[in-house]
C-alpha cells in the first residue's frame, strides 16, 4: 500500500540559492497577493488528514515530476529525526530537485485561486514543507541574517521602506559567498525570523540553506546600488515584519473535491471537451477508485466514491456523453 512517503521524490540534484525565481518576468517586489501562503494555523491536524486521505494519491497520479517512481528509495534512505517525520525530510529534499522546484514555486506564486477552488496541484508538498519549517523553528527560535543572490533585475524604484513577501518558498544562505555564486544582479540581505536552517537535512549542506516560507513579511530598510566592492550590483536589506497568511486554513476544513457537475444538464454532459478537461473531473478519469479493488477506495469520502463510480459509466451517444446516474 502506498504511504504518504510516495508523494516525494528523493533526488541528488539541488536548487541554487536564489535560483527559485520564475522562469519568465516581469519581476516585482510586492506583497505577492496571489501566492499560496497557507500557514495552517490551528488546522494542522485537519490538513494532515486531508493530505493523507484526499490529495496524496491524486497528486502522485497527476504530477509530471515523477514523485511516484521513487517513493521506495525515499522511504529506505531516510529515517525520522529531530521531530521530523519521513515525509517532512523528503519534502525538504524534493524542494531542491530541478524537476520540482521551478514548477512548484511558480504554482505557489500564482495559485491563490486554484488553491481556493480545490484544483491546486501541490497541496501535499506545500503542507509537508510548511510543517517541516514550523517544526524546525521550535528549536531554532532565534532570527538569522541570511543572503540570497539572484540573476534578475527588479524594476521598481520606490520600494524603500515598503513591505514585501517573496510569495514562495525562498532559498537563502548563511554564507554570503554561497549566495553570490548563484546571482549578483539583485541580492538580498535578509533578517528572517520564520525561515528555518535546513542544512542538516539537505544533500548539499555546503550551501548552508535557510528556507523562508511564503507567508513571512519583510520591510525593505535599505537599498545599495553600484557600490564599489559590494557583493552584488543591487542589494536590498530586508527585516522581518511578521506573518501574513491570507489563505490560512482555506482548505483544511472543506470536503475533498468531488465530481464537477458544471457541464451536466438533464443527465447529460453538454460539453464533453470542457467536462473532461475540468481538473476536478480529470482526477476521476485518471483513477478508477470506485471500480478497482485495492485502489484506495477506503481512503475516499463517500461522495468521492459515488462520483467515481458515476464518472466511469458515461458513454458516447451522438457526440454527447450520456451521463448515467446510479
Summarize the structure.
Its EC number is 2.4.2.31. Residues 1-18 form the signal peptide. With 326 residues, the protein is α+β, with helices and mostly antiparallel strands.
Structure commentary:
GO terms for molecular function: NAD+ poly-ADP-ribosyltransferase activity; NAD+-protein-arginine ADP-ribosyltransferase activity; nucleotidyltransferase activity. InterPro entries: ADP-ribosyltransferase_ARG, ART. Keywords: Disulfide bond, Glycosyltransferase, NAD, NADP, Nucleotidyltransferase, Signal, Transferase. Its EC number is 2.4.2.31. Belongs to the Arg-specific ADP-ribosyltransferase family. It is a single chain. By secondary structure, the protein is an alpha+beta fold. The protein folds into two domains: 4-243, Alpha-Beta Complex (Toxin ADP-ribosyltransferase, Chain A, domain 1); 264-322, no CATH class. 29% of the residues lie in helices and 17% in strands. The protein has ten helices and twelve strands. The protein has helices at residues 44-62, 71-77, 86-95, 101-110, 112-116, 123-137, 176-180, 272-277, 279-286, 302-311; strands spanning 144-150, 163-164, 170-173, 186-192, 196-197, 209-212, 216-225, 234-243, 264-265, 268-269, 315-317, 320-322. A five-stranded mixed β-sheet has the order 1-4-8-7-2. The protein has a three-stranded antiparallel β-sheet with strand order 3-6-5. The longest helix has 19 residues, at 44-62. The chain is globular, with a radius of gyration of 22 Å. Residues 1-16, 283-300 and 312-326 have low confidence and may be disordered.
